[in-house]
Amino acid sequence: MSLGDDTLLCNYPKCRAKLSGFAWVTSCSHVFCDQHGSGEFSRSPAICPACSTALSGKLDIVRTELSPCEEYKAMVLAGLRPDIVLDISSRALAFWSYQVHQERMYQEYSLSRADTQLKQMEKVLNQQNQSREIELTAMRGEIASLKKVMEEYKRKYSEVSERLMERNRQYQKLQGLYDSLRLRNMVVGATPQRSPQFLSAAPIGDSRFFSCLEGDGAKTFFQFSSPARDKNQSFINKH
User: Fold this and answer.
1) Please, are residues 64 and 43 in contact by the beta-carbon 8 Å criterion?
2) How far apart are CA 202 and CA 210, in angstroms?
3) Which of 10, 59, 76, 198 could lock onto 15 through a cystine, CB 3.0 to 4.6 A?
4) Domain boundaries of the chain, sorted by first residue
5) What is the CATH number of domain 9-69?
């Protein structure tokens, strides 16, 4: 029975259901539901499932009605002497007190077991929390290290970007100078060269005249002596 309740519980270890209707009561002060009592006490010799006591006596096992009718209550103890009635009542109360004590012991055992399991779970939880804390600390250190590396990469990227922009500006400047020089050379190369007028005015057919002036021919031509020049040269020689 549960504490604070007036209902008995089946003493079968895996049952512990509230009893109603009929129940099986043993001389070793245990009580079982009708289902488990019928199954366990149908074998011979009968053994109490709660304490393993041998129940070989005729009245060691009794199937009783938990809520008897009024006629049964009026007649069950009728005609018995008061001392017998009191003895029967005291034994019935002792059985009830034993069931209450047994239930209290069971509840205390369950509580102690649950408390032990709780402490074990708390211990495991604390160990897991410590392990997670260590892992978290390590991860925080890694994150801080990665942040430093990222900041270093950002700084290097900024420097490289500035250098690249400066190189682009220099390249654009050089490209502009190159384009200006190329355009200037193209303009100079496209201007026509003027030739002397006496060459341009000469007929095509007289080109052989000028060819005779080339080389030694020209020298012979300009050294050709005229009569007047020979007279002047002889006069100078005489004097």
Assistant:
1) no
2) 10
3) 10
4) 9-69
5) 3.30.40
